[in-house]
Amino acid sequence: MNILLIGDSGHAKVIADIVNSSGNKVVAKLDDKYAELFKEDGCWFGPVSEVSNLIEKEQAKVIVAIGANSVRRKIVERLALNADQYATAIHKDAIVSPSAVIGHGTVVMPGAVINAAAIVGDHAIINSRSVVEHDCVVGDYVHVSPGATVAGVAKLGEGVLIEAGASVTATKEIGRWSVVRAGSAVMGNIGEYTTVMGVPAREVTSEANELKL
């Protein structure tokens, strides 16, 4: 399968490795830092406005390779593509249960584990060596960062960011566009647009949630 990446930064490099590890091919990297379309070493580079042209030219599917959840959502809304025009990328060293459901545009990185009956939404990032346990529900545009753990039956709303090494205990719910800071442990439900940190995690009242739209 030919893959077109939206974004050409460090996150895109990681996704390109995942695509290549699965025997597929990155044929284009589109980013508005490029003023015009050009080809180098067999790969197209150019502005995001070239996406429709290159989807047709290369018979490619798209992944939005942007790490920031809110920016990723804005780009998806800007592109206005059909769901079947997006690819899902799962690294060969990830462990994904056959009963798990993974949405379109989502990326599962090396060493990640998604266990039985988990549901992961669209355009999410399940990062390196993170764990999404059985029966979890992970919303669209969520990022579960490296080494983070989401225990069984937990629910993460749209756009939630679980930073590196943080944990969410079983059955807990985190409202949309909330942030769990690195190394924290969530032991109770968290509302929408809330930033928490610590063990147990508590709201950071002095810090604005930069992901609020």
Describe this structure in words.
This protein has 213 residues and is an alpha/beta fold. It folds into two domains: 2-85, Rossmann fold, CATH 3.40.50; 88-200, Hexapeptide repeat proteins (UDP N-Acetylglucosamine Acyltransferase, domain 1, 3 Solenoid), CATH 2.160.10.10. 15% of the residues lie in helices and 29% in strands. It has three helices and 24 strands. The longest helix has 12 residues, at 10-21. InterPro entries: AcTrfase_PglD-like, Hexapep, PglD_N, Trans_hexapeptide_repeat, Trimer_LpxA-like_sf. This is Acetyltransferase.
- What distance lies between the first and last C-alpha atoms, to the nearest angstrom? 34 Å
Shape: globular
What structural class should be given to the helix and strand makeup?
A: alpha/beta
- Calculate the mean pLDDT score and round it: 95
- Would you report the number of β strands? 24
CATH architecture classification name of the largest domain: 3 Solenoid
Low-confidence stretches: 208-213
Query: Strands of the largest sheet, in order across it?
Result: 6-9-12-15-18-21-23-24
Let me know the largest β-sheet. Answer: 8 strands, mixed
Total separate domains: 2
Number of helices, where a helix is a run of at least 4 consecutive DSSP H or I residues: 3
What is the name of the CATH topology of the largest domain?
UDP N-Acetylglucosamine Acyltransferase, domain 1
Give the proportion of residues in helices.
Answer: 10-25%
- Name of the CATH first level of the largest domain: Mainly Beta
CATH superfamily descriptor of the largest domain: Hexapeptide repeat proteins
In what range is the share of β-strand residues? 25-35%
- Using only C-alpha atoms, the radius of gyration works out to 17 Å
